[in-house]
Design brief:
FMN; oxidoreductase activity, acting on NAD(P)H, quinone or similar compound as acceptor; seven-stranded mixed β-sheet; Rossmann fold; about 190 residues; FMN_Rdtase-like_dom
């Protein structure tokens, strides 16, 4: 399966990035092809001025179109997800997440920020027509460390692995389009009865 990860923190060093990297490594170990993007990969002027024709934005849109699944990670600021992530999501085509499995990940200062995923991020992902929008994972700052290149607590690790299992199961049951030449062949050779 082809998966795109999107880090919504404007910083290259972030707790949400640590959680996303742990998810990426797990999916890669299971044989999935994973392409990673971060807000910091995009020119700020392109985001600020909504340049849909930016090469980086077009590259992301092309990978999202090809993807079977998307994982979006964000820090929670002032009871909402990253504003820079919102700007980038606004640059994607209207139905960019149609026929995709989407897993949101978020980190925040305390458990009080947990609802930001349900009330801020998920409606935006739903507006992009996510086919299968999973529950997601929220981690408070005490569960993520920058030590040793980034680590997560055992409790968070367990929840993340369970969510990734659900993500992979949703990917596996996702309907696959039939190639036009195969569809034609199947119709020609099918036995019809009434």
């Amino acid at each position: 399966m082809f998966i795109v990860t999107l880090a919504g923190s404007p910083s290259t060093r972030s707790r949400s990035g640590v959680v996303l990297e742990r998810a990426r490594r797990e999916l890669h170990a299971h044989g999935h092809e994973v392409v990673s993007y971060g807000i910091y990969d995009f020119d700020a002027q392109d985001l600020l001025h909504a340049r849909f024709d930016s090469p980086q934005v077009k590259g992301l849109a092309a990978h999202v179109e090809q993807a079977d699944g998307i994982i979006v990670a964000t820090p929670v600021y002032k009871a909402s997800f990253s504003g820079a992530l919102k700007v980038l999501l606004d640059l994607l085509p209207e139905r960019a997440l149609q026929h995709k499995v989407v897993l949101p990940l978020a980190t925040g200062g305390s458990i009080a920020h947990m609802l930001a995923v349900d009330y801020a991020l998920k409606p935006v992902l739903g507006a992009l027509k996510a086919q299968d929008l999973l529950q997601g994972v929220f981690a408070d700052d005490s569960q993520v460390s920058y030590d040793n290149g980034g680590t997560v607590s055992a409790v968070l690790e367990q929840r993340l692995l369970e969510s990734l299992e659900q993500f992979e199961a949703a990917l596996a049951r996702r309907p696959r389009p039939v190639e036009p030449h195969l569809l034609n062949e199947r119709l020609v050779t099918a036995r019809w009865s009434i």
